[in-house]
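REQUEST ID: PR-0412
SUBMITTED BY: lab tech R.K.
PRIORITY: routine
TASK: structure prediction, single protein chain
INPUT:
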Amino acid sequence: MTNLAATERIKRDLDDALDNMRGDLDRVELLAAALSAFSRPVPDYEPRFHHLHRAELSVKELGKAASR
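STATUS: complete
OUTPUT:
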């Protein structure tokens, strides 16, 4: 193996190692973000249907409307 071939092989191996390290760092960043999100308490559920119009009918009014 010549010096040039050995140098090219080392460069290629180093490039592959750096690519693997970048992938590992991306995964670590993603897992750290997920851990941060999951370590917070779940907020209380408060349904708010401001966009829906609520009918304000009582039982008597429903009975009157049905008897027509």
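NOTES: The two ends are 101 Å apart (CA to CA).
REVIEWED BY: pending
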